Amino acid sequence: MPREPKIAPSLLSADFARLADETARVASADWLHFDVMDAHFVPNLTFGLPVMKAVQAVSPVPLDCHLMIEDPERWAPEYAEAGARNVTVHAEACTDPRGVARDIRAAGALAGLALKPGTPLEDHLDVLVDFDTLLVMSVEPGFGGQSFISDVLTKVRTARRLVDAGDLTLIVEIDGGINADTIEQAAEAGVDMFVAGSAVYGADDPDKAIAALREQAAAAIRG
User: Fold this and answer.
1) Catalytically annotated residues
2) What is the DSSP string of 86-103?
């Protein structure tokens, strides 16, 4: 059965003054991507747990929390306890990836592991069996609106082979520069979940943009 591509609009590209309205504009999405930045692991500062809880209360779709923070072992379980569907931590920030995956799952969410563009997948294959999601960053984390780094698709292809072979059970997710020009190559490489920021929130009709991206990815998967 062909993979069914899923779209996760990124709130980083939304109007922060109207977050309740902005969540409603993407009601047809599969997940809603929520970027947490602490101004330490990455230079920028964005949302935290209180904002996540407020968005969770009004969001028509499940939250996909991407923690670009130091000390994720301390903070990640709280996002799961607050109701996130998926909580992703960065491999580069974790001292105990298996432990944080266990704690996220115990708190009721899926556990994700994110890799920066320059971080080799092979260095983390041994712990991926403890995670539900692999988030491949196709831009450097910390800023929206960057250009897609196609070299990361090598990691996607490797992960897809392992999933298809039954060696891993993972949602393969990609984040960064996903739009109408890049989604097909990402889909062909093996991505399941596509994070899209300006390609969705910059459109006149975000729900139509989601449908168009989903269909583009599905067509690429079908070949």
Assistant:
1) 35, 175
2) EEEEEGGG-S-HHHHHHH
Q: Model-level pTM? A: 0.96
Q: Residue 138, annotated ligand binder?
A: no
Tell whether residue 108 is among the known ligand binding residues: no
Mean pLDDT on 68-84: 97
Q: Is the CB of residue 60 less than 8 Å from the CB of residue 25?
A: no
| Coil/strand/helix, residue 195 | strand
Question: Residue 143: what pLDDT?
Answer: 67
Tens digits of residue pLDDT in 131-186: 999 999 999 987 666 789 999 999 999 999 999 999 999 999 999 999 999 999 99
Residue 142: the pLDDT is 76
Q: Please, where are the H alpha helices in 25-152?
A: 49-58, 72-81, 97-106, 125-128
Question: Exposed, middle or buried, 36 (CB in 10 Å: 0-12/13-18/19+)?
Answer: buried
Element containing residue 208 per DSSP (H, E):
helix 206-222
Is 204 annotated as a binding-site member? Answer: no
Q: Which domains does the chain have, with CATH numbers?
A: 6-222 (3.20.20.70)
Q: Helix and strand tally (H, E) in the chain?
A: 9, 8
Residues 6+ apart with CB under 8 A from 75: 49, 67, 69
